[in-house]
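Please annotate the following for my students:
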Amino acid sequence: MIHSARNNHKLTLAEYQERAGASNQFRGKDTAIEQLRFGLYGEIGSVLALVKKSYRDLQRADLHGINEELGDALWYLTTTAVEYGSSLQEVGMEAMTQLQRHFGVNTSEPNGRLTFEEFDGLVSFSRSQLSDDQTLVRLRQLGIDCGRLLTENAEKDLIASPPLPILSTILADMVLVGALFEQNFVDIAANNLKKSDSRWPPKGSWYVPLFDDDRVPLEQFPRQFSIRFIEQKTSIGKPYVIQQMNNVNIGDRLTDNRSEPDGYRFHDAFHLAYLVHLGWSPVIRALLKLKRKSDPNIDENQDGARAIIIEEGIATWIFNHAHRRELFTNTTTGRLDYNMLKQVRDMVEGYEVAECPTWQWEKAILDGFKVFRQLQDAGGGVVDVDLIARTLTFQEPNTVSGTSDAPLDQDERAA
């Protein structure tokens, strides 16, 4: 049975188009139509691939995946229609007519602003005409119709005459496929907007509040502090890093833990970036002895060993990913691999940081690697953390007043 999305049942196609358009990075590009059509084809292909894996026994995660991929396809279909000079409202009106014809339902033409609930209502009314043995046929037809769109000429002189019938047919196909997998179309659209808002923050968005805002001062991160990274070498020339806060060593000395040096000894820059942009770092909380002991549940589940291991695992996994991509040197905001961001958010499911949207993770990762590269190039330095302004900044070793980068004495090395 298709479940109703009560909170989103008034979502209109026009509203969806307006909100989806805010995240359209292809607008104005000469190749926009081609890129958008390829994107739509790719998302439909992802739906087919999900079904191929376990057609007879789709798990809950697979159904969630179908919902997400159909949502992404809806985004591409909408932006494609707009790029051709049409609208999702126009496409939807024709798609509704096609679905009414498909089900043999005689109703008056939709008036005014069409809503996603109207599609779900039609499908629910005609549910008896849908059966599992239609699934492969509908999936195949969806692929065929999407392929037809690629045969359309994308020259600019055709913008005044968009391929409305093909786009409408694809939308009708998507409604039917979603219904066969018990996906409510209003949920598909609403979930996609939620995903877009998480990836591309709407105007005026600000960070999720710091997770220790309500704790006593002794369990809060200092809102502004600096960490000094001091690079040294062992007697055999192996580099390592000591970190200091207020001239006091914190944590153990860090090496790259690899035969060929790769700079990972500076990786605490990543944890500091997570703290700045996510308000979360069980690793830094443990280093500074700021665990929230007054709440045993938070102390064990949010600040405990498992959370620390997950954070370290995320930092290592992303570093390995970045190492093959020039440490994200040329990656700008909005261009970080979404699949990587999605995987990271899956890894923190169940933890407080799961509340943070994708755009905060992207800022944390890119800013962390920026400071990491600066530390590596300079052979150390000072990293300033500001949790009020949400900034992470680097100072070169020789620009920091009142500090010295002279080699540590034997007692300090032993520490």
Notes: Residues 217-414 form one domain. Confidence is low (pLDDT under 50) at residues 1-6, 156-160, 400-415. Strands lie at 224-233, 239-245, 248-254, 380-386, 391-395.
